[in-house]
């Protein structure tokens, strides 16, 4: 006679919070006894894969599915979930290693909660008894508690449930790998089958890469990209969303003491945000304030539904097709896709984005009114694919270099490099000596003091350095959790480069980890390293001149005025003839660095005596002249020539020809540093 006891498949979710294109949900659906799998739901129906080959021995016999989304206590502060406010959390605070910031801030915490709740509702709406459980704690401990609870209940005669297997999706970070190893060990100790599934949220499936060993990954993105072109033919088909799943088990283990899981989306958000409210100012004397009439560039809630809504909009409104010309923008919602947060949490996959673009390119699905509809790959969709490959590349770099990503010198240890690490055409065989940074807890040996470095870093975080572009970007990211790639590059360069602040780049990366809605371990730490010049790329970092960059990418001062409202009333044009206005170069330079404003403007704007105006952290000498070529050189966006030829760049070019006189960068210090 068949054993009638419920057999549970336990699915531990981390950054795979979606129903569609999720191999685990798909396998649970198709291998469940009453398999009634029917129709997929998303636009890429034509490119779906209904059968994924999983060896039979990997599929346990199960009758119920228990999906559990765990908020890991080392990355997300969980003390807001304590059932009794007088109890202490058993876990150390989820704070960063170097600067001690919370590791997950408001913006991402809320986005994650929204994503989890969206999936919970999706599962419930399948109407087959499925649901998502949310738990907090150390992942291994949560799993152990679940297994122990079922054992105890069975021993006490209150339940007949057995856990048949544990499945989870592998992830790249070292902490994630440790959690996976813990779960595997616990499974093995308790003789429960375990399977770590490949993470399928990337553009090119790892199993299709032309790499025998991760050590073979080229250290230069361009080399990697060229080895994979044409990119459009690379992604695997996506997997449809199941319409039916095994039900949740009859008994479900509760959240372990001393925590309690709220029963509403709002309650979940509140519990996540509560510990962060203790110090809403982050120890900053002047935390950024929301500027009047300013809208976020990232107004999207988290979740699979919102991700697909955004994707559909990008395609049907044409923003995907114009991406190449708008991607260097900084103001508004549609200059770039804003899909990064969804990708980071696994609310959507890169190949789903690819297949939706493919539908458009081949004249299927939404977007009929757009000129490029049905005309194959266009500059915009090709540009998005290139970016998605950057994301893949960062994640592969994380695999190749592992924990070295977090070290001050990154992976730039000459003794560990081989000649094949060097990009042949750039002839950078000679590695420069190690870089040094000003440190926040001890002197970096550069005549700096940690007190002064902390003070400067505080002004940087507050958006009060005196450099318009940097201040706008830092205020924006603080208030919204998002800022453009262009802004991020400038900010990272400004913090870490010795000709500007020269501060330990890791505290910048930690600050971003805290703030970013789209924080992704590999993309964040990889990009910071890349700009700081400690990454695998042979060039020694990207030195961006934020004044020249503002002129190229914010030629009308729109971005700076959006986030630094103190400068909004500064007129940037002057009359040169009847009805003829011309850019007032002097004023524009004053917008980019307010110390350059004349006394009359300072008085009029109420900026006289204001610290970031009168005592900027850095003064960049930069002048404008007519009819002369641009001088100097600087980091170009990740070496992609076309990125530099932005819309803003062309406009700026028409109006102004600049001569860069950058040699004279002064780091304001001591008495005039404020
Ligand atoms: C210092 C610094 C820190 C960063 N931290 C993160 C991070 O934590 N998480 C993150 O997703 N991106 C990070 N980026 C990369 C990039 O800035 C963001 O991915 C991008 O701005 C997100 O906006 P979007 O979705 O509109 O991007 P789009 O321009 O629309 O690009 C499409 C997608 O491509 C991917 N992508 C684009 N550029 C990069 C890149 N340089 N590296 C990796 N992936 C890329 C993203 O997934 C993005 O959603 C960082 C960049 C810098 C310079």
From TrEMBL:
Keyword Flavoprotein carried by entry: yes
Cofactor needs: FAD; (6R)-5,10-methylene-5,6,7,8-tetrahydrofolate
GO MF entries: damaged DNA binding; deoxyribodipyrimidine photo-lyase activity; FAD binding
Residue intervals passing through the bilayer: none
PROSITE patterns, per the entry: PHR_CRY_ALPHA_BETA (PS51645)
Biased composition (Pro residues): 237-253
Gene3D superfamilies referenced in this protein's UniProt entry, alphabetically: 1.25.40.80, DNA Cyclobutane Dipyrimidine Photolyase, subunit A, domain 3, HUPs
Stretches assigned to the Photolyase/cryptochrome alpha/beta domain: 7-202
Record keywords: Chromophore, FAD, Flavoprotein
Region (Disordered): 228-253, 278-301, 412-453, 626-674
Keyword Flavoprotein: yes
Compositionally biased residues, Basic and acidic residues: 414-432, 647-662
PANTHER family: CRYPTOCHROME, CRYPTOCHROME DASH
Record-given protein name: Cryptochrome DASH
């Amino acid at each position: 006679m068949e054993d009638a006891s419920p057999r549970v498949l336990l699915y531990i979710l981390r950054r795979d919070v979606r129903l569609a294109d999720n191999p685990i949900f798909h396998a649970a659906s198709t291998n469940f006894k009453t398999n009634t799998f029917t129709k997929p739901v998303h636009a890429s129906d034509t490119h779906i894969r209904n059968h994924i080959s999983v060896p039979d021995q990997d599929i346990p016999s199960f009758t119920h599915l228990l999906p559990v989304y765990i908020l890991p206590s080392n990355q997300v502060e969980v003390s807001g979930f304590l059932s009794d406010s007088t109890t202490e959390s058993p876990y150390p605070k989820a704070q960063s290693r170097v600067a001690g910031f919370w590791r997950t801030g408001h913006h991402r915490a809320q986005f994650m909660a929204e994503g989890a709740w969206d999936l919970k509702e999706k599962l419930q709406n399948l109407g087959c008894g499925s649901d998502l459980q949310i738990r907090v704690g150390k992942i291994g401990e949560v799993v152990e508690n679940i297994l122990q609870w079922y054992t105890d209940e069975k021993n006490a005669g209150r339940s007949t449930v057995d856990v048949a297997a544990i499945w989870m999706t592998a992830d790249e970070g070292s902490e994630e790998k440790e959690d996976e190893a813990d779960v595997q060990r616990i499974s093995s100790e308790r003789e429960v089958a375990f399977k770590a599934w490949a993470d399928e949220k990337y553009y090119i499936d790892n199993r299709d890469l032309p790499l025998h060993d991760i050590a073979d990954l080229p250290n230069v993105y361009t080399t990697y990209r060229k080895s994979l072109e044409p990119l459009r033919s690379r992604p695997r088909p996506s997997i449809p969303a199941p319409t039916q799943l095994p039900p949740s088990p009859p008994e479900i283990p509760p959240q372990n003491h001393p925590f309690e899981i709220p029963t509403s989306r709002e309650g979940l958000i509140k519990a996540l945000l509560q510990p962060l409210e203790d110090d809403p100012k982050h120890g900053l004397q002047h935390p950024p304030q929301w500027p009047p009439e300013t809208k976020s560039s990232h107004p999207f809630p988290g979740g699979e539904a919102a991700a697909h809504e955004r994707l559909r909009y990008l395609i049907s409104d044409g923003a995907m097709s114009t991406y190449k010309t708008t991607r260097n923008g900084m103001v508004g919602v549609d200059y770039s896709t804003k899909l990064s947060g969804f990708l980071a949490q696994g609310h959507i996959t890169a190949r789903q984005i690819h297949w939706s673009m493919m539908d458009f390119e081949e004249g299927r699905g939404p977007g009929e009114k757009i000129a490029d509809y049905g005309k194959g790959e266009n500059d915009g969709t090709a540009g998005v694919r290139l970016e998605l490959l950057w994301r893949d590349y960062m994640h592969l770099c994380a695999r190749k270099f592992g924990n070295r990503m977090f070290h001050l010198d990154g992976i730039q240890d000459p003794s560990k490099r081989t000649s094949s690490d060097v990009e042949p055409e750039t002839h950078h065989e000679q590695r420069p000596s190690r870089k040094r940074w000003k440190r926040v807890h001890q002197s970096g040996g550069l005549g700096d003091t940690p007190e002064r470095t902390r003070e400067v870093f505080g002004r940087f975080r507050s958006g009060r350095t005196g450099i318009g572009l940097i201040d706008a970007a830092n205020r924006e990211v603080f208030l919204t959790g998002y800022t453009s790639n262009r802004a991020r590059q400038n900010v990272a360069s400004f913090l870490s480069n010795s000709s500007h602040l020269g501060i330990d780049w890791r505290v910048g990366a930690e600050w971003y980890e805290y703030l970013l809605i789209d924080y992704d371990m590999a993309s964040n730490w990889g990009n910071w390293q890349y700009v700081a010049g400690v990454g695998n790329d042979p060039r020694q970092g990207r030195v961006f001149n934020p004044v020249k960059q503002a002129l190229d990418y914010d030629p009308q001062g729109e971005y700076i005025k959006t986030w630094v409202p103190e400068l909004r009333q500064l007129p940037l044009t002057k009359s040169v003839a009847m009805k003829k206005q011309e850019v007032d170069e002097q004023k524009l330079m004053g917008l980019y660095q307010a110390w350059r404003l004349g006394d009359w403007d300072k008085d009029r704007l109420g900026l006289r005596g204001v610290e970031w105006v009168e005592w900027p952290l850095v003064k960049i000498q930069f002048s404008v002249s007519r009819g002369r070529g641009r001088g100097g050189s600087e980091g170009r966006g990740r070496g992609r020539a076309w990125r530099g030829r932005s819309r803003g760049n062309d406009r700026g070019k028409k109006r102004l020809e600049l001569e860069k006189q950058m040699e004279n960068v002064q780091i304001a210090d001591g008495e005039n540093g404020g």
